[in-house]
UniProtKB/TrEMBL annotation:
This is Cell envelope-related transcriptional attenuator domain-containing protein. It comes from Candidatus Uhrbacteria bacterium RIFCSPHIGHO2_12_FULL_57_11. Pfam families: LytR_C, LytR_cpsA_psr. Residues 366-431 form the LytR/CpsA/Psr regulator C-terminal domain. InterPro entries: LytR/CpsA/Psr_C (IPR027381), LytR/CpsA/Psr_CW_biosynth (IPR050922), LytR_CpsA_psr (IPR004474).
């Protein structure tokens, strides 16, 4: 990308603190979402019918169906992309009014559905990815929505959609954008969401509303989170225990999104008029989308049929051998395609739902880390660093010998992953070895690809 035009990514371009919302259009979008949900449930027999003289709540599923049911049952509209067996929807999350950089998108997820197999994929796109934003040049992708909103209120979602299309080479006809306030209220109105926190972590730098910081903590295990708690879980990016990166945050965001989808489509939500009314109110003020009513009916139908076990999760990151590399572009930190052309991103996007490609994907190397020194905690600290870079850590602890001066990476794949071995050895400034000595043993039941013995030189290089 040496031929990219020079731009100042640190230029404090003005983004409006607030953009006047188009209330009528947004309320219709919100009503479409919930009406679609209610209508689907009614069609499937869960709500019955309305008697001619019966009085019902204006926001109840019965009332919605009575008003539009007869028309919409016949007017379900196919989604753009169904003919090609691939429906793409861009999901965007932003702070919204009252937050710093209110229209910068913190969450960017390309959601794809393959109707013929009931498969779906969530591809998280990092906000620092450098892309060509139509009309604005090479910028971080999270600027697309903000720049467009500054120039023409209401156009941000479409600008972000077009930026993703250009960078990933797939059609993205739809977008859904929600702000933090809407996210919190939606989850609260649903009665919370159930999230399984994989590992405990704390974040001492989570921002407060008055531009200060606070410490937040999450314990491992299944728990129900309200809107505020779920938002913190999805936003935290300075966590301990391997949760301190944008990439770790992206994985958590996908978990929250799936939990929200399950709760939204549950019978307890679709048959509760009060919940539906509250959701409509929340969405009308905080959500923007270009999906129309009839398309939403079809989308809900597809969502109900998705097999949760067949949802592909992918986070684009700069792990060794991965699709992105970190770079400094005109004084700003950015992420760029590792192949220098961007074709690797297009290949990932095009094949993410291809079962043959999925089956053939190489797994991130599995590592066991042993401390070959007397430096306390060296193996643990190194495991966190390598986990953050995308490696799978199957075990860490102390080695039988504690006199290593330089780190050694032992290859347990019999030479099957030579490229990965070199990347890892270079990363750790370690010696690569094809065989392990007789005294050394692997301590975990899950056999690693590489066994790392840390030397004293690693203490300074891991800081």
């Amino acid at each position: 990308m040496d031929d990219l035009p020079k731009v100042n990514l640190l230029d404090p371009r003005e983004v409006p603190p607030e953009v006047r919302t188009r209330r009528r259009k947004r309320r219709w979008a919100a009503l479409s979402v919930i009406s679609g949900l209610a209508l689907w449930q009614g069609i499937s027999g869960g709500l019955g019918s309305v008697a001619p003289n019966e009085t019902v709540d204006a926001f109840s599923p019965l009332a919605l169906i009575s008003r539009v049911g007869q028309i919409m049952v016949k007017a379900e509209k196919s989604l753009v992309g169904e003919g090609d067996d691939r429906v793409n929807i861009l999901l965007l999350g932003m702070g919204g009014p009252g937050h710093n950089g209110p229209y910068l998108t913190d969450t960017i997820i390309l959601s794809s559905i393959k109707p013929s197999t009931n498969r779906a994929a969530l591809l998280s796109i990092p906000r620092d990815l450098l892309v060509d934003i139509p009309g604005y040049g090479w910028r971080k992708i999270n600027n697309a929505n903000a720049f467009a909103e500054a120039d023409k209120p209401g156009s941000g979602g479409d600008a972000a959609r077009r930026a993703v299309e250009g960078a990933f080479g797939v059609p993205v006809p739809y977008f859904v954008r929600v702000d933090f306030a809407g996210f919190r209220k939606l989850i609260d109105d649903l009665g919370g969401v159930s999230i399984n926190v994989e590992r405990s972590f704390s974040d001492s730098y989570f921002p407060t509303n008055d531009d200060l910081t606070q410490t937040v903590r999450f314990d491992a295990g299944l728990q129900t989170m309200d809107g505020q708690r779920a938002l913190i879980y999805a936003r935290s990016r300075h966590g301990s225990n391997g949760e301190g990166s944008d990439f770790a945050r992206a994985r958590r965001q996908q978990k929250v999104l799936l939990a929200l989808r399950d709760k939204m489509l549950s019978a307890g939500t679709l048959t509760n008029p009060r919940k539906i009314k509250s959701i409509i109110d929340a969405l009308s003020k905080h959500v923007a989308t270009n999906i129309d009513f009839r398309e939403i009916i079809r989308l809900v139908d597809l969502a109900r049929e998705l097999d949760s076990d067949k949802i592909v999760h992918r986070v684009l990151d700069d792990a060794p051998g991965g699709p992105l590399v970190a770079a400094n572009y005109d004084g700003a930190f950015v992420l760029q395609p590792s192949d220098g052309t961007g074709e690797i991103l297009k290949s990932i996007a095009r094949s993410i739902l291809d079962t043959r490609a999925i089956a053939g994907q190489e797994e991130t190397p599995r590592l066991e880390i042993q401390n070959g020194t007397s430096i306390e905690g060296l193996a643990y600290r190194t495991s966190l660093t390598l986990r953050e870079r995308g490696y799978q850590i199957v075990a860490y602890g102390n080695a039988a010998r504690r006199d290593y001066q330089r780190s050694v990476v032992y290859d347990l794949t019999s030479g099957a992953k030579k490229k990965e071995l070199k990347i890892l050895a270079d990363l750790l400034d370690a010696e690569a070895a094809a065989t392990i000595p007789d005294w050394l043993s692997v301590s975990n039941s899950v056999r690693p690809d590489f066994l790392i013995i840390l030397g004293k030189s690693q203490d300074s290089s891991s800081e």
